[in-house]
Each structure stands twice: as structure tokens, then as C-alpha cells.
Amino acid sequence: MTDTKILLNESEMPKAWYNVAPDLPEPMAPPLHPKTGKPAEAADFAPIFPMELIKQEMSQDPWIEIPQEVIDILKIWRPTPLVRAHRLEKALGTPARIYYKNESVSPAGSHKPNTAIAQAYYNKKEGVKRLCTETGAGQWGSALSFATALFDLKCTVYMVKVSFDQKPYRKLMMQTWGGEAFASPSNKTNSGRAFLKEDPNSNGSLGMAISEAVEDAATHDDAKYALGSVLNHVMLHQTIIGLETKEQLKKAEEKADILIGCVGGGSNFAGFVFPFVPDKKKGRDIKMIAVEPHSCPTLTKGPFTYDFGDTVGLTPLLKMYTLGHTFMPPGIHAGGLRYHGASPLVSLAVKTGLVEARAVHQNPCFEAAVQFARTEGIIPAPESSHAIRVAIDEALQCKKNNEAKCIVFNLSGHGHFDMTSYDKYFNKQLEDYEYPTEKVKEALKHLPKVG
After folding, report:
1. Which of 62, 81, 173, 344 has the fewest Cβ atoms within 10 Å of its own Cβ atom?
2. Does residue 348 contact residue 24 with C-beta atoms inside 8 Å?
3. Cα(260)–Cα(411) distance, integer angstroms
4. C-beta neighbour count of 419 within 10 angstroms
5. Per residue in 96-126, is it b (16+ CB within 10 Å) or e — as a string?
């Protein structure tokens, strides 16, 4: 049996982030100003982001150096292990070799601190006192609260109400690290009050929570906004995952045939697969699969067009796959995947055929999560279970075809705070919900008109 864990030393950590933008098959469409509809300039982002992150957002440099202070903090848990799933392979009876990158070992239990630390660092350098953000399942809110604690910043989190109620311990994690969390929509902002007036029992959505967080940041001079996914600089910071994975596969004398990650906004997926894009451009046959829920089918059912990142329309217009910024997702348990849009970088990678998008139902995902837990020991986050489902499907296809492929997926987080989801699964209370096409069409009626 080959080694189970493939490890890197701290000295082998990446020293620079990889920027995929110049390597994509076609250039990205520019973000547009929400009021004028003209290409947004750096100054347009200044009210909500520090200048260094704005520069990263617009950069065409293939590599951007990681500050030493950021590296020193990342060393608390990085490099993360690449693990050979020997027991899962045996249970499946597959000739495929299955590996997973274990991002659940971070203090917050997911990949999210990779960018939270970087964003807190750049905001601190520019004299910001408080960061405002949104969170779906609570992974990002937890990560940012952890990061702001290390840089002596305050943190305000607007957490989607359905997740706020489903996952009370996430709120307590944020509080332990000094963050404050509010159920969104809330009475703290004009946009939140407007949402509640329209529907006092609203479950909330990431789009609503983003509106509240952006409004909070934009109306307070000492505060800035931090986003846990979607934007280019977030994808950039997460590439440390894939860069480490590449080095670990070299150590294992392996070459990945199939790379898999779940997608909500796209950060863990992009961070995992984008560093392999140069290899694919050079002719390596690597299948990259982005997995999303059928109940929020952004990449598989949405059009590729300009839309707002939030519900109110405060953010710049981004060209991406979208279900419409007024889309109200059902309260599925993979809260981090309930977002109407997707990263423009990931969207362009799908549109150009670099990446394949798939949608899966939540019951088969939980089935895969339980099989993974009973073989590999880790209870995965509901979001990560989407990647596990497709990894198992691909491994079973290898068994059918008698192919010994190398399958690698990103375990983006553990599910220790998601046990109510597992409880519902075991009690057969989870519904496999396929978002109706007519509801998608209704939401798309409200797309902004770009001339």
C-alpha cells in the first residue's frame, strides 16, 4: 500500500498565488458600474475594498507574491494533507486511485481562511477598523471572524436566516473569535428592512445578505466589505490549495486525470483546479468537474450574462452564469451553495469548455458523504458531499470501464456543525428539489439591461 498522507513541509508552501486570468481561452468581460453601465474603474471599488485587493481584482499578472505575514499565519494549519482514500477505493472495488485535499483541518474547518487571512491583512494595512460580510452556511463568517481576531479588527456578519436558524453553533464560533452575527434579512440596514417589509418570514438569501453587508460597509467610513467567494482576488488567494496539490501529486508520482470540486460562488473549486489550467493548455488530458446542487443550478441552467452580485443591485455588474439576482433558493442544507451567481472566472472556464459543470441532488450527496465518513472517517460538510458524490460516480465508471484513473477532489470542509442535516437525511426528511424552469425564467426577467 502506498502512503496514505502526502505531506509538504512548511518551507515547501507556495510563495505566490497563481492568477488564471491571463491563461483563460478568452479575456474576461469587465465589471460594469451599477448605475452608469460603463466599465468599472478602480475608484469605483474604493468605498468597499482596500486598494491592494482592487489591484489584485484587476491584475493580469500570472503570479502575485504572498506577503510573509500572511504565510506565517497560514502555517498554523498549512500545508494541508493530500490523502489517498484507500478504504473508499476498496469499498467501491474500483481500479481508480482516489485522493482528496483535506481543507477541513483549518481552525474554521474549511478552505475559507485562505482568503480571510489575506483580506484581513490588506484591510489592516490600510487602516480599516471593521469588516462587514455575509455568510450562507456560516463557514465564511467563521473564517473571517477568525482572521479579524488575529489582526485586531472588528467583524460584522449577516448570516442567511435559514442557516442562522439551522446552524446556531456557527454563530457561536463567530462570537468566540469576536465576530457579531445577525440573521439576514435584519433590521440593521435599509435593504434588510425593505426585505422584511416585503416578506416578514423571509428565509433570506446570499444576495440579500450581500446587500446588507455592502450597505453597512459603504455607509461607515471605518469599515470595508469582505467577500468569501465569486471575486477574482478571492479565487486568487485560494490557489494555494491547487498549488500544494500539484506538488503533493509529484511526490506521489501521480498525474491527475479528473479534478472535482463543489461550486456555490466557486472559490474552493477555482483554488483547487485553476493551478492545473497551464498543464491542460499544454495538452494534458485533465477533466475538471464543477458540481452544484439541482436546487440552485447556476452553471447548468443559468445564462451567461451580466448581473448584480446582490439582490438590491448595489454591487458592480459581473458577467457570469446567473439565475437572476432576485432568485430565491430553497432552504437546502448545503447552505454555502445557495447563490444565484458564480465566479466570473469559473463561469468563463465553463463557457469556454475548460470546465464541465454537473448538478446533483442532495440525497445522493448525503449517501456519498456517509459512505465517505464510514470509510475515511471524516464527516464532510454538505457542500463537500457534492464533490464526493461525483468522485464516487467517476470511480464507479472507472470500475465499469476497467480504467485505473487518478481522481482528485477537494474536501472543502468538515460537517461537524451540520449534523442537523445528517439527522434529516437519516430520518428521510430531505427533499430532492429540482428548481422549476418557470421559476428560473421568472427570476431572469429582472436581469439588468446592458446596452
Report:
1. 62
2. yes
3. 9
4. 12
5. bbbbbbbbbbbbbbbbbbbbbbbbbbbbbee
Q: Is 303 left (phi over 0), alpha (psi -120 to 50) or beta?
A: beta
| Residue 445 burial (C-beta neighbours within 10 Å; 0-12, 13-18, 19+) | exposed
Domain layout of the chain by residue ranges:
5-11+67-109+235-444
Dump pLDDT digits (tens) for 98-146: 999 999 999 999 999 999 999 999 999 999 999 999 998 788 999 999 9
Cell 452580485 appears where? 309
The dotted CATH code for 5-11+67-109+235-444 is 3.40.50.1100
Segment 332-385, tens digit of pLDDT: 555 556 678 999 999 999 999 999 999 999 999 999 999 999 999 999 999 999
